[in-house]
Design brief:
The protein is mostly helical. The chain has 38 helices and no strands. Helix content is about 75%, strand content about 0%. About 50% of the residues are buried.
């Protein structure tokens, strides 16, 4: 007599029927993800990525903060934040490492979406032909992976919180359907665990257990339920407890009540939010079926109350949602309906049900964000896949044409993947991102503010100020509830733009106004006042004003960094005594140590600390610091660390060590413009023009490097690193002026260096005038075209 089959044997017996279509879905998901997202890997951190990840000490300095820091920053999202810690540990501050993790999650989520589609069809009563199982899995997985509506949850790094929760949620549902089909206990427990992990990633999946229970009662026959009533009731009860158990555990470590309140918006109540969401839910469907409407910051007008048409539109929206859900529930429960119709209607229930956490009565300051549709979109995928397979079965294709439906699917998916690749281009820079928002939502206050901030960081101060002034004029016509965050940030950014434009009288008046209106934020006011004193050259006053008293965060880092810059400037003042200069150098070192203690991989702090150590007579410690920094540096930062390391080795009398270092660095990053400028400028200092021509290139190549130097210097100035931008421009200028054929960018380099020098050191008027004179003298000569000897 044969022994009873073990769970492993039973698993193997049913595996081939389930794994093959699912595996096809995973493969298609991988191809679609690579197609749509492959070019985005090295796009920079943007928007909330900066404060949520890059400048967040609980992520970049986890060893010091530990789990307590994770719970304090966002305990209800503990797994999502821990995934950022893992990414940081694996790749440091390299956005590509973070995005690879996101791509992996997206492929897994899409694959489980396909597996769930096949299992739902079986539960609904469909006797699938083998080829249609593959078609169903490929359609559902591919659509989930390729559709551009998913870009915000995948390309926007911080929204990994949504994709991680979605990945766990879809994996949980896939194993739940396996349990419904085969009654294997391991599948139920795995599903339960994955659902709990989804809720610990982001609590917007709190309605998942309700949908699980609905699927169990809708797709299980009455006879099967009756034979296992007690098991069903116990399983349902445990799943329904998840939304209560997990938040309670999170609350124990994070003070979740105050964090939930912080997500709201002052002046926004549950009733107003509910009416707005009655329209927003249907806007998600608009974006899904017409991707050109996509935006990072959708503008949704609030109803004014009473008989406002927007009020009635919100009420009508909820009525239609209720009707759609009720009709879908009835259709799913009606076993006389077509299996494909039941599956499609369950997809409708899934879509609306998963949106209800963030689109109901709980006010959130962002009315509509596309990453919220990540998990709900799986329901649309199941519905569309069911319709396609139902059509393929109905037309009963001849054998020689049986792949026609698959060809249609491939055509649709490739088109969507191309749209996704196009959509992802807006994430290439902050300017392109916020400019794209204004094309679809010109009334977005936040987009206008962030576009101005992006221009400011790129050193385009006039353009930034124009954006801020434009935004000020639009604020008056916007609802007060939408002005709250922008109204606090705008005067601060406008004052900074005025300071950077050296319009000090206007900036002083703006700073006084800021102090009068922002009494609840003295830290920011003191930063503006201190930076104004620094820009004017009142360095001692700036040091006394700039204080942060141990406060952590991005603003505290900015204050400490500005103190370090001011102290470095004073330490370089040769009119002071040696003792005074050493004291100021010590102040710079202590402030940089404060930053590195909180953010050990801060690139600017690392570079400045290396220079301070070298100036203090500790070149060995400086090189050790740079070597340590290289271990965790991103591909964008590492070449600059190597350049500064070479700079500290430069000695015209003993050039061998620096030359060897630069050659090794160039082998590692052969096309990096910064390294080539540093190497070329050192060769120019040595007078080795033949080596410049051989290793760096001719006049046209140097022109390209000079253009890059001008762009990079503008970004450095935008991030307030004026002395670094001057250093870069002077090196590019030295390289440009070397040899018998000068490059054509000397006037632009000299002018930019002079302007940035005055921002770095207002007292350096004579040197700035000499730089401008160098540019003018070359402009007046016929050799300035660079084509004559």
């Amino acid at each position: 007599m044969k022994s009873a089959a073990t769970p492993i044997q039973r698993l193997k017996a049913g595996a081939s029927a389930e794994i093959s279509p699912a595996l096809a879905g995973f493969v298609v998901a991988g191809v679609m993800t690579a197609w749509g997202y492959g070019d985005t890997c090295h796009f920079p951190f943007l928007f909330d990525d900066l404060n949520g990840i890059v400048n967040n000490p609980v992520i970049n300095n986890f060893s010091a903060e530990g789990l307590r820091g994770i719970f304090r920053f966002g305990g209800e999202r503990v797994l999502g934040l821990l995934s950022f810690v893992v990414s940081w540990g694996l790749s440091g501050p390299d956005p590509c490492g973070f995005r690879k993790f996101n791509f992996f999650l997206h492929v897994i989520a899409a694959g489980f979406c396909g597996l769930s589609a096949v299992n739902l069809a079986r539960l609904a009563g469909s006797a699938l032909a083998r080829r249609n199982e593959y078609l169903l899995a490929i359609m559902a997985s591919g659509l989930f992976a390729a559709h551009p509506v998913q870009t915000q949850a995948v390309t926007y790094i911080y929204q990994r919180l949504a994709s991680l929760a979605g990945c766990f949620g879809l994996a949980s549902f896939a194993f739940f359907t396996v349990w419904l089909l085969r009654r294997e206990a391991w599948a139920w427990w795995l599903s339960f665990l994955l659902a709990a992990l989804a809720m610990m990633s982001k609590p917007n999946v709190a309605t998942l257990p309700v949908l699980f229970v609905f699927a169990a009662w809708a797709f299980t026959t009455q006879e099967a339920r009756g034979s296992q009533t007690r098991k069903f009731i116990r399983a349902d009860f445990l799943f329904l407890c998840l939304p209560l158990i997990i938040p309670a555990l999170m609350a124990a470590g994070s003070g979740i009540a105050s964090r939930v309140a912080s997500h709201g918006l002052q002046g926004l109540g549950a009733q107003e939010y509910f009416l707005v969401q009655g329209r927003v839910i249907w806007k998600y469907l608009q974006v899904i079926f017409w991707p050109p409407l996509q935006s990072v910051d959708h503008v949704v007008q609030m109803p004014a109350g009473g008989n406002d048409p927007l009020t009635w539109a919100g009420i009508a929206g909820w009525i239609f949602v209720a009707l759609a859900v009720i009709a879908s529930v009835i259709a799913v429960l009606d076993r006389r309906s077509s299996p494909w119709f039941r599956m499609a209607c369950f997809g409708v229930c899934w879509f609306f049900g998963n949106l209800l956490v963030e689109s109901s009565i709980f006010p959130i300051r962002d009315f509509m964000m596309e990453q919220r549709a990540y998990l709900p979109f799986a329901g649309i995928c199941w519905g569309l896949a069911a319709i396609l397979v139902a059509f393929a079965e109905r037309i009963d294709l001849a054998p020689r044409r049986q792949f026609l439906a698959l060809m249609v699917v491939i055509l649709v998916l490739t088109g969507l993947a191309s749209l996704t690749e196009k959509r992802n281009r807006v994430w290439e820079s902050a300017e392109s991102l916020w400019s794209s928002v204004l094309k679809t939502d010109p009334g977005s206050l936040r987009a206008r503010l962030n576009l101005g901030n992006a221009l400011l960081r790129d050193g385009r101060y006039e353009d930034a100020l124009a954006r801020y002034r434009e935004l000020s004029s639009l604020m008056a016509s916007s609802p007060p509830v939408l002005q709250t965050a922008v109204a606090r940030e705008l005067p601060y950014q406008e004052t900074m733009a005025l300071i950077l434009l050296r319009r000090f009288d206007e900036a002083s008046g703006s700073a006084d106004s800021l102090a009068a209106n922002m009494t609840d934020d003295p830290l920011r006011v003191s930063y503006v006042r201190g930076f104004l004193a620094y820009a004017r050259g009142n360095y001692r006053d700036a040091l006394s004003i700039l204080q942060f008293d141990g406060i952590v965060g991005a603003l505290a880092r900015d204050i400490a960094m500005t103190r370090a810059r001011v102290a470095e400037r004073l330490a370089a003042d040769m009119s002071l005594s040696l003792q005074e200069r050493e004291a100021f150098r010590g102040i710079a070192q202590r402030n940089l140590e404060e930053i590195l203690m909180t953010s050990p991989h801060d690139p600017e702090a690392t570079l400045r600390m290396a220079r301070v150590l070298a100036a203090s007579g500790s070149p060995g410690r400086a090189q050790d610091l740079l070597r340590d920094g290289l271990l965790n540096a991103s591909a964008g930062v590492a070449p600059w660390l190597l350049a500064v390391s070479g700079e500290l080795l430069e000695d015209p009398l003993r050039p061998e060590l620096a030359l060897k270092h630069y050659r090794e660095a160039i082998k590692r990053f052969p096309r990096h413009p910064g390294l080539r400028i540093w190497f070329g400028s050192f060769l120019a200092m040595l007078g080795d023009h033949d080596a410049i021509h051989q290793l760096i290139g001719g006049a046209s190549d140097v022109d390209v490097l000079a253009d890059n130097a001008l762009q990079q210097a503008a970004r450095l100035s935008g991030s307030l690193q004026f002395d670094e931008s001057v250093n870069l421009l002077k090196r590019a200028l030295r390289l440009c002026e070397s040899g018998p054929r000068k490059c054509t960018r000397v006037p632009a380099l000299a002018d930019a260096a002079a302007r940035n020098l005055l921002l770095a050191n207002p007292a350096a008027q004579d040197e700035a005038e000499n730089l401008m004179a160098r540019g003018r003298s070359l402009t007046e000569r016929p050799e300035a075209d660079g084509n004559k000897p």
